[in-house]
Amino acid sequence: MIEFVSAFLISYILIGLGVTIGYHRLLSHRSFSCPKIVEYFWVMLGYLSFEGSPIWWATMHRAHHRHVDTPLDPHSPKYGVWNAHVGWFIHKGYPSHIDPQVQAKDLINDPLYAFLEQGGSWARAHFVSYIIGWSVRLLICLVFGWKAALASILAGYAVLQIPLMLNVVCHIPKLGYKNYARNDDSVNVWWVALLAMGEGWHNNHHAYPGSAKMGMKPWEFDLSWLTILLMKKLRLAHAINVVSPKPLAPLWQMKFERPRQAKIEPVDC
Ligand SMILES: [Zn+2]
Ligand SMILES: [Zn+2]
Q1: At what angle do helices 122-144 and 146-169 cross, to 10 degrees?
Q2: C-alpha 30 to ligand 2 mean position (Å)
Q3: What is the mean pLDDT of the chain?
Q4: What's the gap in Å between 199 CA and the centre of ligand 2?
C-alpha cells in the first residue's frame, strides 16, 4: 500500500509540474527559457494527464487571459459553471474567435507539437493523447509493475482535474482573496494552490501573467516556482521573468494595489 501511495504521489507531482511548468508557465506564457529537451521533458510529462495537444491548451489559455471573464472567455464561470468546468474541454474544436495559427504562432511549427495537434482536429488529437498516454503506462507496467502503472494512470486523471476545477473555483470571488484589484473575477485560493503546485494564486497570475513566480507573499507556497529556481541552479533555466512587487503591507493595513507592468510581456496574452 505504501508503495502504491508513494508511486501515486510522485506521479501526481511530476505530471502536475508538467502541466504547470511545461504547458502553462513555459508554453503558454514563455515566462522563462530552457533548452528544448528540457521543455519537451516537462511538456510530455504534462501530456500524460490527457489534457490534449499542447498547442490547443496554450491557445485556449492565451484566449482566456485575453478575454478573461467576458463572453469571449472560453471558460469563465460567469457565463455558466458547467461550461467553465467541462464544457469548454469537450467542445470539439476551436471557437470561431480562437485560431492557433494566429494565437500560437510560436508553437505551430514545432514538429512534436504539430504532430500532437493533428491539424487542429480535436478528436484525433485526443485520440493520439490516449494512445500515447496508455502506451507509456503499459511501458511503466512492464518495467516497474502494475502498481506503478495504475498509480501513474490515476495520477494522470487526478492532474486533469486541476485546470478543470481551477477555472471555476479561482474565478468565483467569494471563494478566495485578491492581492491585486483587477477588472476580472480571479482570486487566490490556498487549497487550490497546494493541489495545483502554486497555480491557485490565480489573482496574482492574472495581475502578472508573464511572471514565472505566482506566489507573491511569503506564505503563498508555489512548488512550480521552487522547481524553476532549482532548474536555474542546475543551469537548466534562464531568462526567468520575475515580477517583484513592492513589500506587501501587514494584513490589517492591506489595500488593493493596481497591477504594475511585468518586466517582460507574456507571449500574446
Ligand atoms: Zn484565469
Ligand atoms: Zn496563465
Answers
A1: 140
A2: 10
A3: 89
A4: 9
Closest ligand to C-alpha of residue 26 is 2
Cα-to-centroid distance, 86 and ligand 1 (Å): 15
Tell me the CA–centroid distance for residue 260 and ligand 2, in Å. 17
Neighbour-count burial for 106-145, b at 16+ CB within 10 Å, e otherwise: ebbebeebeebbbebebeebbebbeeebeebbeebbeeee
How far apart (Å, rounded) are the C-alpha atoms in residues 184 and 95? Answer: 21
Per residue in 75-89, pLDDT (tens digit) is: 999 898 888 888 888
Give the separation between CA 19 and CA 269, rounded to whole angstroms. Answer: 18
CA-based nearest residue to 229, from 242, 219, 243, 247: 242
pLDDT digits (tens, 9 = 90+) for 116-159: 999 988 889 999 999 999 999 999 999 999 999 999 999 999 99
Residue 4 Cα to ligand 2 midpoint, Å, equals 32
DSSP string, 125-137: HHHHHHHHHHHHH
For the entire predicted model, the pTM comes to: 0.87
- What is the C-alpha separation between 92 and 237, in angstroms, rounded? 35
Measured in Å, residue 199 CA sits from the centre of ligand 1 at 10
Tell me how far the alpha carbon of residue 141 lies from the centroid of ligand 1, in angstroms: 36
How far away, in angstroms, is 230 Cα from ligand 1 center? 26
Distance 10 CA to ligand 1 centre (A): 27
Cell numbers 510581456 correspond to 265
| 169 Cα: distance to centroid of ligand 1 (angstroms) | 10
Ramachandran angles phi, psi of 178, nearest 5° = -115, 140
pLDDT band at 19 (very low <50, low <70, confident <90, very high): very high
14-to-10, 99, 189 alpha-carbon distances in Å: 6, 30, 22
